[in-house]
Amino acid sequence: MADDLIRYTILDSAIGPLLIGGDADHLTFMHFPESDRLRQPAETWRRDDAGFSEACAQLDAYFAGELTEFDLDYRLDGTEFQKSVWAQLEQIPFGETWSYGDVARRLGNPGASRAVGLANNANPLPVIVPCHRVIGANGALVGFGGGLDLKVWLLRHENIPVPGDPPRDQMQFAF
């Protein structure tokens, strides 16, 4: 996508400012405030708050604990393998986790855990395509584009216990 075709907005969310953008027809990316792939709007980009109002409304509802599944028109740009992994991520229910191996097995390629991890890391729409719900085979929280602290926050937000948390019936979450 050429920079001069990129539209964007910035959502002041519960996890910090999110850069949300895409082309004239689709949402195609979201970036966390702290990220290895952090992008800043270029001079050729056009701010379009109205064009992303539905995405912002749904993200606000998710962060408020009122939405568990997104219903947005978006396009995921990547390789065919990446797209197949992201399609599996979209199937992980709110409040559940799958391991990289689980995703690989669902793809019919149980030996592809590492490749699944690389595709997971390249997810252009984190949270919306819930890559934060993927964990290591032993339950470990393995990497996350927004940092492990954010991954922990997102998992707890969905009432998913993380290593070191008290039993679920003793957990409390602030939204």
Task: Please name the defining characteristics of this protein.
single chain, 175 residues, alpha/beta, Double Stranded RNA Binding Domain, Arc Repressor Mutant, subunit A, 2 domains, 4-stranded mixed sheet, two-stranded parallel sheet
Q: Topology of this structure?
A:
Blueprint: E1 7-13, E2 16-22, E3 27-31, E4 46-47, H1 53-63, H2 80-89, E5 98-99, H3 100-106, H4 113-121, E6 134-135, H5 148-157
Helix pairs in contact: 2-4, 3-4
Q: Explain this structure to me?
A:
- The protein is of the alpha/beta class and 175 residues long.
- The chain contains 5 helices and 6 strands, in the order E-E-E-E-H-H-E-H-H-E-H.
- It has helices at residues 53-63, 80-89, 100-106, 113-121, 148-157; strands at 7-13, 16-22, 27-31, 46-47, 98-99, 134-135.
- The strands form 2 sheets. A 4-stranded mixed sheet has the order 3-2-1-4, with helices on one face.
- Strand 2 and strand 3 (27-31) form a beta hairpin.
- The radius of gyration is 16 Å and the shape is globular.
- The termini are far apart.
- Residues 170-175 have low confidence and may be disordered.
Strand elements, count: 6
Radius of gyration: 16 Å
> What is the CATH H-level superfamily of the largest domain?
Winged helix-like DNA-binding domain superfamily/Winged helix DNA-binding domain
Write down the overall mean pLDDT.
Answer: 89
Which class of secondary structure composition applies to the elements? alpha/beta
How many domains? The number is 2
Strand order of the largest sheet: 3-2-1-4
Q: What fraction strand? A: 5-15%
The H/E string reads EEEEHHEHHEH
